[in-house]
Design goal:
434 Repressor (Amino-terminal Domain)
């Protein structure tokens, strides 16, 4: 699980991607030539928790969800990278998701206020 050199090589690219944690997990997984199934098996083995599966990993990699601290710790161990690096990438990803949601909410409020919401007037 010697992925640390890979992590250093890709950190700046990952941070610029807009999907920091997902991109980090995907790149490290691919550099270690792991399928999502093999990585989820590895996470299950180190955590002892059967709840992880390839579909959940896919959701994390796509940035649809940011794993909580519990899963980030096991991901770091399974990928062979420092926990704080995974937490940092998650914090940036979560911050961007919140900013995006606030922007979408503001857009919706403006549309409602102007009466231009889908389906007719308000």
């Amino acid at each position: 699980m010697a992925a640390w050199h890979s992590f250093n090589d890709t950190w700046e690219d990952v941070m610029a991607s807009g999907n920091e944690l997902g991109e980090l997990v995907r790149r490290l997984r691919r550099r270690q030539r792991l399928t999502r199934r093999r990585l989820s098996d590895r996470v299950r083995r180190v955590s002892g928790d059967p709840a992880i599966n390839p579909d959940r990993l896919r959701e994390w990699e796509l940035g649809r969800y940011v794993p909580d601290r519990y899963w980030r710790g096991w991901l770091a161990i399974a990928l062979g990278v420092p926990r704080d690096s995974v937490d940092r990438a998650a914090a940036v990803a979560d911050g961007r998701r919140r900013t995006r949601r606030r922007g979408q909410a503001a857009d919706h409020r403006r549309a409602v206020a102007s009466g231009s919401v889908a389906g007719g007037s308000v």
